[in-house]
Structure formats: structure tokens, C-alpha cells
Amino acid sequence: MTKCVIVTGGAGYIGSHACKALRAAGYEPVTFDNLSTGWEDAVKFGPFEKGDLLDRARLDEVFAKYNPVAVMHFAAFSQVGESMKDPAKYWRNNVIGSLTLIEAAVAAGCMNFVFSSTCATYGDQDNVVLDEESVQLPINSYGASKRAIEDILENFEQAFGLNSVIFRYFNVAGGDPEAEVGEFHQPETHLIPLMLDAIAGKRDALTIFGTDYVTPDGTCIRDYVHVCDLVDAHVLGLKWLEDGKGSRVFNLGTGKGFSVREVIDHSRAVTNMEVPYVEGDRRPGDCTKLVSGSERAIKELGWSPDRSNLTEMIGDAWKWHQTGHYEK
Ligand SMILES: NC(=O)c1ccc[n+]([C@@H]2O[C@H](COP(=O)([O-])OP(=O)(O)OC[C@H]3O[C@@H](n4cnc5c(N)ncnc54)[C@H](O)[C@@H]3O)[C@@H](O)[C@H]2O)c1
């Protein structure tokens, strides 16, 4: 019988790519999503169960229906700026929602849990390559909410034996090379889709938020990972748990940082079009530089982030952009 995995947030950007990867690996991905920021037409690779993380009865129903071998938990709010203005929204949805889900999983005897955490849990640690042992000092409510969920998972392991793989993502980019699914947030806050929109004339010029950071060209530096590489790591993480290897934290990034201006230069080269941009003020909550130490995932999971180069990430995102799926 095909093994089911509950994928919360499966109608969103990363969750929909994870469903495709799970399906290809022989699992049945069951999307659990309230469509608050996701899209029903992104649920293409398995059943859809509409529901909210905060609705325990609905979660119990779905666990009982599918008897999943694991949960992959992507559902969350994830805009740094919004989290600074409305922290309660983040603590309620991300932390209380995740707690409700974790309790439902344990009650259903589903003891394998894969969780989307973030490099935002590390905070602003200038000029350090961040590895899994780095201290976590989030500087925004979003990062704080994710760190709290990591703590909950650790406590549930101690109390009930829940096994978790926690992935701390750096900046996720790109899309399915077959363009069946892709990135579409509304509002969009991520650099590459914003830039492609500006290139295609679908929005005004791109704003560079802050040009006075202490970096070689004054703009923020981020470590970009291809969404397909990222979801491959999730399938490896799932197998890790199924093999009984126990709880573990892994960073997912490449160890290479690119400034906003460097990403703009690459986009110009990939699309062969000019990137209209203006220079603006810093955004509250943004860190100067976030670069991953990702040796652990490569060594222990056998992960190979082969597609995580800017040319492929921007190229795949551009392919998706041109399908017109973007016009919602
Ligand atoms: N995109 C990135 O670069 C990035 C970086 C680090 C971490 N992450 C994390 O990865 C995960 C997925 O990010 P994404 O970019 O795909 O976001 P997304 O907004 O595209 O997807 C999130 C999905 O979760 C659903 N959702 C939100 N709250 C819910 C709730 N209470 N109940 C049910 N469904 C709910 C939304 O409808 C949406 O489909 C998030 O947890 C995010 O914090 C993303």
C-alpha cells in the first residue's frame, strides 16, 4: 500500500514542490491547507484536505482517514516585515497552529515529523557562516516563532518520543523545471519573483531595500537554494526518520552568498533584459548577511544541491513566470 504523508501548506510554493517530489519517490502526499496564502490549483500530486492548523478536530479527522507515516509541516506565515507589525498573527498561526498539529500527530501515533524552519532563527550575526550549532538569536517575530516551534519539537521528543527532522532554510528560489508548479506569493516579498515582475513590466521598478549595509556593494547578502534541491532534502529527511535515525537539525543552503546587486546582474544575463530598480531604505527586521554552513546535510543525508546556482534558479523561475500562471 502506498504510504501517505500529510503535507501542511501543500498548496503553497515549497509545499507544492514537495508534493511533486514525494509523489515521484512513491509516497501519497496529502495536502492539508487553509488556502490563506496558497492556491488550490497547485495541489496536483495527491488529495487535498482543506483545513486550518488551529482546528484540532479537522486535523484528527485527516490523520484518522490517511494513517500517515509522517508529517511534512510547511504551513506558516512567513513575511518578516508583517511579523514585526503584527507579532500576534505569527505566534497564533505559526506557534499555536504548529502545537495543535504536533499534538494531533502524537495522538494519532504519527511519530515522524519534518519541519520547515528558517535561517531567520539565527538572527544578524555578521560575517559568520552559520552552521547548525550557531546560536539562535532571531531579530524578528517570524524567526522567533520558528525557533519556538523547534523548542516544542524537542520537548515532544523528550516527553513522547516524537522524531523530527528540522530543516533551516536559507533563501529558497527557482521552480519546477517542468513549470507544473512555481512560486507565487501575494503579496510577493522575495527578490527573484519581484525582479522578474519588474523585468516583465508587471510591476514598477524593483526596490533595493538598503544600500548602506556593511557588505562589498552595500546591499544585503543571502544564500539561495533551488526549491527542487530543497524538497529533495525533505525526501531524504523522511527516509532518515523512517530508517529510525532519530531527530536531527540540518541547514539547507549552499555556503555561497550573493548580494542583491549580484542577483540583479545574473537576472540581466539570464533573461537578456534590463532590470528596472530604485534604491530605497532598509526594511525593519532584515539581516545584513545570511550564509549557510550546509556540510551536515551533504555528509549525513547524502544531499547534493546541484541545481542551486543562480543561473538555474533564475532560469526556472523565469520559465514559470512566462507560463502566465502568475496572472491570478
Ligand atoms: N520561501 C522561503 O524562502 C522560505 C525560507 C525559509 C523558510 N520558509 C518556510 O517554508 C514554509 C513554506 O514557505 P512558502 O514560501 O512555500 O510559503 P507559502 O505561503 O507559499 O505556503 C504556505 C502555505 O501554508 C498555508 N497555511 C498557512 N497557514 C495555515 C494554517 N493555519 N492552516 C493551514 N494552512 C496554512 C498557506 O495557505 C500556504 O499554502 C514556511 O513555513 C516558511 O516559513 C520559506
What brief labels describe this structure?
328 residues; alpha/beta; Rossmann fold; UDP-galactose 4-epimerase, domain 1; 2 domains; 3-stranded mixed β-sheet; 39% helix; globular; binds nicotinamide-adenine-dinucleotide
Describe this structure in words.
The chain is an alpha/beta fold. The chain has two domains: 4-173 and 225-252, 3-Layer(aba) Sandwich (Rossmann fold), CATH 3.40.50.720; 191-222 and 255-321, UDP-galactose 4-epimerase, domain 1. It contains ten helices and 14 strands. It has helices at residues 13-24, 56-66, 80-85, 87-107, 141-160, 191-199, 227-242, 260-271, 295-301, 310-322, and strands at 4-8, 28-33, 48-50, 70-73, 112-118, 163-169, 171-173, 206-209, 221-222, 224-226, 248-252, 258-259, 277-280, 289-290. The chain has a seven-stranded parallel β-sheet, with helices on both faces. It has a three-stranded mixed β-sheet with strand order 12-9-14. Helix 1 (13-24) links the parallel strand 1 (4-8) and strand 2. The longest helix is centred in the first third of the chain and has 21 residues, at 87-107. The protein is globular. The relative contact order is 0.15. Residues 8-9, 11-15, 33-38, 52-54, 74-76, 78, 93, 97, 116, 118, 169, 171-172, 185 line the site of nicotinamide-adenine-dinucleotide (NAD).
